[in-house]
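Quarterly update from the structural biology core.
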Amino acid sequence: MARSYKTKSFKLPSSLELDMNKKVVADGYGLRGKSRWLCDAITKFLTFSDNEFILDCIEYADNLENLEKSVSFRPTEEVRELLSEWAICARKKMPMLEGVISKIIRAAIIQALLGSIDTIKDLGKIDESSLAQNANG
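Predicted structure, tokenized:
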């Protein structure tokens, strides 16, 4: 991974930042591996094949509140390009959305904390089937 000297800052709820820091260490990145972990999480999230799912996750990240912790990291060139591309995609779907890149980063963090994207999709299917059962029953 190429080293970057430009930093990117975004805000998180305190609880999400604490969970992220624990996950960084638990995943073996160490106490100083936050930038590398974030780059890996963002890349994995934004290269998932289901574009609508990614956009839905970004839209969900818009609902987070209490963004009191400022977090900085050094994105690689690849991550900066992915973030720029997806910012355009997100603005096409949600033109009034502000702080798009920060929302993309938050969505990637949530995905990385919850587990694999397949796990999240399975949760979505469970919610859909529960709704269908409740509507029919």
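The first helix runs from residue 14 to 26.
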